[in-house]
Write a structure and sequence with these properties.
Rhopdopsin 7-helix transmembrane proteins, 2 strands, elongated, 12 helices, transducer, transmembrane helix, membrane, about 75% helix, transmembrane, mainly alpha
Length: about 375
């Protein structure tokens, strides 16, 4: 593009520099997203690779989600930083289409994983006595999510491209990567319909699944409280009776056991059976408690996802309704709108923080890994000094 053409004594490069200067806070925020997303999700992968080897059924999708989040954070932040630096000088139409396709692919993959996790939690909590997802089912669901993400991304090159961008203030035109105003009407309408349907289906699905999960967990807690209350009442009422019957039971038991031969009676067997039953009951309670905590954790992740994507979906709708949406933004409005537009990336960087706060096992294993990582260099340093 010719950078010497002027309008009101300003060149294209100066105009681009003016917009880029106003977007410096956005570039800084995106850089913070990049560092946090890469470091956080990579650390999650390290914990699952070296500490939580062979993740259980409860945590199967966590390292998968971390890998998708890391890829999405790396690509999306670099892409949007590049576009911040080329707001009116983006003239490569083919590159813009490729970037749009990859954006759709990397954005939708983690969202699909959240839907799979919701289905898994629903099966685990609402149908605890039925078989949960098998390994084949889990792998098939991952392939299915990639296919759906691909289908979502395929129309994007026909909807986005390098478009003319006119400044009302300076009376000159540049080019930027954005939604085509006069592209393929069929593909543009198809993408709008598919995007709206997918968003609607995902939101409704997550709401219904976690609604049912919440109802089941609440009902189980109420039943547990009622059972504990009844158990205490039975113990209280039976205290008087048990003291009277205890002496007769002891004498009767002594007479019966004295007539039994050593081969027919083993005094340790009832105690072993009782200990096994108690241990099994404690294990079931522990597993149920862990399952409920992980369910709450995944619910928090889903709520964060919905809150982070709401501004982007709103801006996409406004972009579709008003052809000159971006052109009409002032130099002060643009950074705010772009911050809201890019806020969905928080969904890809916040999960490790949620794991650290809500997953006790992950927090403990992460602490052990950090001690191992920082202990070995110290030992090597001591040896080198000696």
């Amino acid at each position: 593009m010719n950078t010497t053409n002027t309008g009101n004594n300003i060149t294209f490069s100066e105009w681009n520099d003016e917009i880029t200067t106003s977007l410096i806070p956005n570039i800084i925020v995106l850089s913070v997203y990049l560092v946090l997303g890469i470091c956080g999700n990579f650390f999650v992968l390290l914990v699952y690779a070296f500490q939580i080897k062979g993740p259980s059924d409860e945590r199967y999708f966590i390292p998968v989600l971390a890998a998708f989040d890391m890829i999405a954070t790396l690509y999306l932040t670099v892409n949007y930083i590049f576009q911040c630096l080329n707001q009116v000088t983006f003239s490569n139409d083919f590159l813009c289409k490729i970037l749009a396709f990859c954006t759709g692919l990397t954005t939708f993959n983690p969202v699909s994983i959240l839907v799979i996790i919701a289905v898994q939690r629903y099966m685990k909590i609402c149908f605890p006595f039925k078989q949960s997802m098998s390994i084949l089912m889990k792998r098939s669901s991952l392939v299915f999510t990639n296919v759906i993400s691909l289908l979502y991304a395929i129309p994007l090159p026909f909807v986005y491209g390098s478009i003319h961008y006119r400044s009302v203030k300076y009376g000159i035109s540049g080019t930027r990567c954005g939604r085509l105003k006069d592209g393929h009407p069929f593909m543009s309408n198809l993408h709008a319909i598919v995007a709206c349907v997918l968003v609607f289906v995902i939101v409704i699905t997550l709401t219904i699944l976690y609604g049912r999960i919440g109802y089941t967990v609440f009902r189980n807690l109420e039943m547990k409280k009622r059972f504990t209350r009844d158990e205490k009442n039975i113990e209280t009422n039976s205290e008087g009776v048990s003291t009277e019957v205890r002496e007769d039971d002891m004498s009767t038991t002594t007479d019966k056991t004295s007539n039994l031969s050593p081969d027919k009676y083993d005094g340790q067997r009832p105690m072993e059976t009782y200990e096994k039953a108690t241990a099994s009951k404690k294990r079931r309670k522990h597993n149920r408690r862990v399952s409920h905590k992980l369910t709450i954790m995944f619910l928090v992740i889903t709520v964060v996802f919905l809150l982070c994507f709401l501004p982007k979906v709103t801006i996409l709708l406004l972009e579709g309704m008003y052809a000159n949406f971006w052109e009409q933004l002032s130099i002060l409005q643009r950074p705010v709108v772009m911050f809201l537009y890019n806020m969905f990336i928080i969904n890809n960087i916040v999960n490790p923080i949620i794991y650290a706060f809500m997953d006790i096992k992950f927090r403990n294993e992460a602490a052990i890994l950090l001690k191992r990582m920082f202990r070995k260099p110290c030992i090597c340093c001591r040896r080198s000094k000696l």
